[in-house]
Design brief:
The structure is a single chain. The protein has 247 residues and is an alpha/beta fold. It has 2 domains: 109 residues, no CATH class; 117 residues, FdhE-like fold (Alpha-Beta Complex), CATH 3.90.1670.10. α3 packs across α4. The longest helix is centred in the N-terminal third of the chain and has 19 residues. The radius of gyration is 18 Å and the shape is globular.
């Protein structure tokens, strides 16, 4: 069983029990992670078709209003075409719901070991966008680098879950490097997370510090830490890339 999806499911359950402010968003996300796990394990087209239908119905009934309305204009069968676009020359969808389903299904594909090897091979000369997908990052991750006796910063792609090294004092959006232009905002209830903002481009990304909480799961904690998004917006910053909830 793919460990990555189990980790996300367990983390969502843990935060559901402790973060009342994130109940709605995590109640939406957890079944998606469960469907992703089942899709990864499925090889039969008939089973995948049923799982696509479950995913579509869940988004239509439990998703944010704008996403749900957009998904209702689609059919469950459309998800197969979106899945095929990940490994062919078929153009990916451009509508919001299509982009959402593409991201969900791409995260399933990214759990494959061969896919991971290809992504790592492409992660050369890293910049503020994913070397594999050319997309802006969804979250910044800090972890201890014991060999260098320092804290290493990486960025995480929202689609392929590719992770690449990036300077700790640099804006992923505009490459501003002056520390006085890169404020950090925090929320007392989430001490292992912060907003990494930029006063030059007025963009922000959230950061998960695994040296302060090794149990954190970057994609889940980023999604659920809505107080930080409120703080960032109050200061006039706009997120570099939205998460699955459109935040």
């Amino acid at each position: 069983m793919p460990d990555v999806f189990e980790k996300r499911i367990r983390r969502a359950e843990t935060l559901l029990a402790t973060w009342e402010f994130a109940t709605q968003i995590l109640s939406f996300f957890r079944p998606i992670a469960q469907i992703q796990r089942d899709l990864f394990l499925s090889r039969e087209t008939e089973i995948k078709t049923r799982l696509h239908s479950r995913l579509w119905e869940h988004v239509c009934t439990r998703g944010p209003a704008a996403l749900a309305d957009d998904a209702k204009r689609m059919k469950p069968g459309d998800l197969l075409g979106i899945e095929l676009s990940l490994s062919s020359w078929i153009d990916p969808p451009s509508d919001p719901a299509g982009q959402f389903f593409l991201q969900v299904l791409a995260q399933v594909e990214s759990a494959d070991p061969l896919s991971k090897e290809l992504r790592e091979a492409s992660s050369v000369n890293p910049s503020g966008t994913c070397p594999h997908c050319q997309l802006p990052p969804i979250v910044s991750v800090l972890r201890e680098d014991k060999q260098a006796d320092t804290v290493r910063r990486t960025l995480l792609c929202p689609r392929s879950c590719n992770e690449w090294d990036f300077s700790r004092v640099l804006c992923p959006s505009c490459e501003e490097e002056r520390p006085e232009k890169l404020p950090r905002l925090t929320a007392q209830e989430i001490p292992w997370m912060r907003v990494e903002a930029c006063d030059s481009c007025h963009k922000y990304i959230k950061s998960v510090d695994l040296t302060l909480n090794w149990e954190a799961e970057p994609l889940v904690d980023e999604l659920a830490s809505t107080p930080l998004d409120v703080i960032a917006r109050e200061h006039g910053y706009v997120k570099i890339a939205p998460n699955l909830a459109g935040i």
